[in-house]
Specification:
This protein is α/β, with parallel strands linked by helices. It has a single domain, classed as Rossmann fold (3-Layer(aba) Sandwich). Helix content is about 45%, strand content about 15%. It is built from 6 helices and 4 strands, in the order ααβααβαββα. Strands 1, 2, 3 and 4 form a 4-stranded parallel beta sheet that branches. Helix 5 links the parallel strand 2 and strand 3. Helix 1 packs across helix 6. The longest helix is centred in the last third of the chain and has 26 residues. The termini are far apart.
Length: about 160
C-alpha cells in the first residue's frame, strides 16, 4: 500500500502549489481531513476495506453531521493479491464514504495502461506493485490535485 500512496503523492506534487501529506489512519483524524482540500483514501483489499479501516471510517459519524468535507475532492486506491478478489468493491466502499461526506469524486479516464492495471474507479495493484500500477497512482494524484486547485481558485475568484 505504501508504494501506491507515495505514488499518489508524487503525482499530486506535480501540481503547482500542492502540499501533500501521506499518512496512515493512525496518524489522521477528522481535524486533518477537514483542513485538507483533497482526500485520497487507500486500503488493502480484504473483500472491502480492512476491518481496522472500516472501524476508522465508521468512527466519523459525528464528524459527518458537521459537513466539513462537503465540496472537497476525493479519490481512492487499493491493492490485492488477486484481480478477482473484490478490488472494485474496496474502491467503491472507500468512494461511498467520501460521497456520504459530500466529497467530489475524481476517477481515472480510460487508457491502454488499464488493460494491464487498474480500474477507472481508482488506482489499483494486484500482486506485486508494478511500474504501471505506480504510474496509474501518480496520474490519479495529479488529477485530484489539479481538480482541487481549480475548485479552490474558482472559490477565491
Amino acid at each position: 500500500m505504501r508504494p501506491l500512496a507515495e505514488a499518489v503523492g508524487r503525482g499530486a506534487r506535480r501540481v503547482t502549489g500542492t502540499r501533500v501529506d501521506v499518512r496512515t489512519i493512525d496518524e489522521t483524524g477528522p481535524e486533518e481531513l477537514a483542513r485538507a482540500d483533497a482526500i485520497v483514501l487507500g486500503s488493502p483489499n480484504w473483500n472491502g476495506p480492512t476491518g481496522e479501516f472500516k472501524r476508522w471510517l465508521d468512527g466519523t459519524g459525528d464528524f459527518w453531521e458537521e459537513n466539513p468535507l462537503v465540496g472537497k475532492v476525493g479519490a481512492a486506491f487499493t491493492s490485492a493479491w488477486s484481480r478477482n478478489a473484490g478490488v472494485e468493491f474496496t474502491l467503491w466502499s472507500l468512494l461511498h464514504f467520501l460521497l456520504a461526506h459530500g466529497v467530489i469524486i475524481v476517477g481515472l479516464p480510460w487508457t491502454d495502461r488499464m488493460r494491464l492495471s487498474g480500474s477507472y474507479y481508482g488506482a489499483t495493484a494486484c500482486g506485486e506493485v508494478t511500474p504501471d500500477d505506480l504510474a496509474q497512482a501518480e496520474v490519479l494524484g495529479e488529477r485530484v490535485a489539479a481538480v482541487a486547485r481549480a475548485l479552490k481558485l474558482g472559490r477565491e475568484a
